[in-house]
Amino acid sequence: MIYPITPVPKPRQTQSDKWKKRPRVMQYRAFADDVRKLRVRVPEAGSRVIFTLPMPKSWSKAKRENMRGRPHRQTPDIDNLCKALLDALYADDSVVWDIAIRKVWGDQGAIEIETTS
């Protein structure tokens, strides 16, 4: 299943984030709301998650064609993307014990979840 949500990493949060409106934290909260609204599901085992991150608009058409679907080797880190997704879905994400993760370049942000078992 492909969900049209631009992935964001899980930020470090402090007590003051309960009342402060830091942009990074607000972006994560909006992402978590979107994930829940679209009813994204990640099974406890046997899933493959592909995070598609949007290419910069400043890239040339040729570079965009060349990079589409290629590995995304920059920040945000893949573990922070996964943490953001699982924390948005589960109160206790320790129930997920088997997951394969990738992050690639794409025209638009998306999260694709495939069940392998």
What is the helix tally? 3
Apparent shape: globular
User: What percent of residues adopt helix (DSSP H or I)?
Assistant: 25-40%
- What are the secondary-structure elements, in order, as H or E? EHEHHEE
Tally of structural domains? 1
Strand line-up in the sheet with most strands: 1-4-2-3
Main β-sheet, in a few words?
4 strands, mixed
Cα-to-Cα separation, first versus last residue: 15 Å
> Mean of the pLDDT scores?
91
Number-wise, the strands total 4
Structural class: alpha+beta
Which stretches are poorly predicted, pLDDT < 50 over at least 5 residues?
Answer: none
Strand content: 15-25%
- Rg: 15 Å
Summarize this, please?
By secondary structure, the protein is α+β, with helices and mostly antiparallel strands.
Structure description:
With 117 residues, the chain is α+β, with helices and mostly antiparallel strands. The protein is built from three helices and four strands; from the N terminus they run βαβααββ. The chain has one domain. The protein has helices spanning 23-37, 61-67, 78-89, and strands at residues 2-3, 47-54, 99-106, 110-115. It has a four-stranded mixed β-sheet, covered by helices on one side. Helix 1 (23-37) packs across helix 3. The mean pLDDT is 91.
